[in-house]
Amino acid sequence: MAINWFPGHMKKTQREIKENLKLVDAVIEIRDARIPRSSANPDIEKLLEGKPRIILLNKSDLTDSNVTKEWIDYLTNDIVRVLEVNCLKGDGLKNIKPMLLNLLKEKHDRLRAKGMVNIMMRVMVVGIPNVGKSTFINKMARNNIAKTGDRPGVTKSKQWIKTGAGIELLDTPGVLWPKFEDDETALNLAFTGAIKDEIMDIEELALKLVDRLQESYEAKLKERYKLTEVFENPLDTLDAIGKKRGTLISGGQIDYNRLAVILLDEFRAGKMGKISLERPGEEENEDN
């Protein structure tokens, strides 16, 4: 699937993130809990090496909770902590401050030994487009300082935001990377809305989503669209869904564009049930 999506401001953002890392104590990286691997920018990962970090698995209310717990164990290490959160509702965000204090304990102990008190934690917030960064910042700041939207790439410039929790946040625009290593990463980002639908063939995207779901979540697909069966050819399954949903035009043909919009909107809103598109270790298994 051809995708041309790397705007110039993303390259500029990568440079600014590298320059501004020295200004912060730690990083909060927001990922989509449905695709924790695909929603991690590998270029940013390299920049953040050695920096204390909290990974927020956002939209965890939309995922298979057992799989999300596997990801938490998989991603946690000495300087990285992981939380499952729902930034829209604020679920899990109260755990951020104690987690940061734990990560920065040695540094704070040194500062207190020098007589410093009321230490403000300065934290950079990073993440790919449409993953929930602005929603997170607004919830932490308790107002709408950061611009939000359901389109990728709403935040365009750096800004500092003070919170009432002794944390100052440095917001950065959502940034992707110039080249995907595999088609599955590109598809996962497209399924979840990190890549703008306007540059996609959404009919093909919907077909590939049906193919993925009937492979891993057949029961949920059948339940949502009241299907008695799914077919070996996902196009036949897509047609069956179209007939159930009444997305027909003259001559009884399926309006695939309208159907694609319905499918993608319902998946992104969690109406198909709790679905995780990635599991830890799958990439390694494929390489072996």
CATH topology of the largest domain: Rossmann fold
Percentage of helical residues? 40-55%
**What is the β-strand count?**
8
- Order of strands, main sheet, comes to 3-2-1-4-6-5
Rg is 21 Å
General form: elongated
Structural class, from helix and strand content?
alpha/beta
Verbal overview:
By secondary structure, the chain is α/β, with parallel strands linked by helices. The protein folds into two domains: 164 residues, P-loop containing nucleotide triphosphate hydrolases (Rossmann fold, 3-Layer(aba) Sandwich); 81 residues, Conserved Hypothetical Protein Ylqf, Chain: A, domain 2 (Orthogonal Bundle). Helix content is 42%, strand content 13%. The chain has twelve helices and eight strands. The protein has a six-stranded mixed beta sheet with strand order 3-2-1-4-6-5, with helices on both faces. It has a two-stranded antiparallel sheet with strand order 7-8. A hairpin with a 3-residue loop joins strand 7 and strand 8. The protein is elongated, with a radius of gyration of 21 Å. The relative contact order is 0.15.
